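Quick illustration for those who missed Monday's session on complexes.
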Amino acid sequence: MSLNFEFSAEHEAVRDTIRRLCRDELGPLVSEAEETETFPASVFRRWGELGLLGVRYPESDGGSGLDKISDCIVREELSYMSQAFATSWSAHTHLGIWPIWKIGTAEQRRRFFVPALEGAKIAGFGLSEPDGGSNVRAMKTRAERATGGWKLNGSKLYITNATIADFLLVAARTDPELKPQSISLFIVELPNAGFEMHKLRKEGIRSSETALIHITDAFVPHDCLLGETVGTYPVILESLSENRVGVAANALGMARAAFDAARSFADTRIVAGKRVGDYQAIAHKLADMSARIEAAHWLVYYGAWRVDQGTLDAATAARVKLIASETAVAVSEQAIRIHGGAGIMREYPVGRIHRDALVYVIGEGTSEVQRNIIARDLGFKP
Ligand SMILES: Cc1cc2nc3c(=O)[nH]c(=O)nc-3n(C[C@H](O)[C@H](O)[C@H](O)COP(=O)(O)OP(=O)(O)OC[C@H]3O[C@@H](n4cnc5c(N)ncnc54)[C@H](O)[C@@H]3O)c2cc1C
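Prediction with flavin-adenine dinucleotide bound:
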């Protein structure tokens, strides 16, 4: 029996590659993207060239043949730089294509999954609705059979990448009855005459693209019903569980970025002749932040390891996501306090990181929803 608490040389190489990319190529794009609230979509091509969109997918399917630990390393480093960039990456490389990889037909994989890995097509995932966020089962978007395919009607809310996407995976009810088994996924190529996009302005992850979509009589050919089967709700749940571990890695990256900024500030800011970090109140904050990050770090990579072992369950994923995302919020708030007035100024990163971190106690299932999943695992009925 052995417990290994070290990353492999291959994992370290992945971290080096993504760090260099962030420092040399992506980092310089972040400020303008934030200011203009626009995602530089050409970045997807570069990610594709470097094999960063297929990190956790097998080489035999066109991926980079690495593992979930590597995927989480990429997420952590992207989020350290900019959570908005990491969100666009995640909505594409996990939510928008994982279900196609999992259950898509050979033709669907060829047309959508492979070009998405290359960055030639951008993907997104439309699950949430105005009345169906935490409560997915309240989904109102309907898909009805039409000649040669399906007709979709309804709306989708807060959909990442929608305004820059070449296709979206859209969840819709294929049976009027309110039961989870009647929820199916459709690959909708864009533009589609029935899809009306409204770009949303946000407080957090400002440069990632997010939209409200009104769907009116949108025709989708039969071969774009994912896996050519109805009732794929369990695949959505499995995809969300894995992505919660991924999102936890994103949160870890944000927490580290906020901590590093606070530590550096505490080291250089002199008040009454002393570094502020030498005041016990500030030093203890930094100590708590560092301990929380260490705990989140090992939990995240334990979750990734469980994905790689094929043993991840929904409650473990919820625990990992809950702890890491709340850590990012708490650490970034403390980082603002350590900065004093400077923490509120835009030239310091901690305000942006805190706004971005708050998105992740909501997106991919709120902290309350994660607690419900965990409580159900404990045998209660919240
Ligand atoms: C920036 C951003 C990007 C997003 N990107 C995507 C995307 O690409 N695709 C997509 O499909 N979705 C996306 N989402 C949607 C996201 O998944 C939902 O916002 C989230 O699931 C919460 O749903 P809601 O906003 O409707 O909140 P609500 O469900 O209305 O929740 C409101 C409050 O009530 C609480 N609550 C609700 N139900 C319960 C309960 N049973 N027990 C206890 N408390 C409860 C919630 O925790 C929350 O505090 C995105 C959201 C954001 C903010």
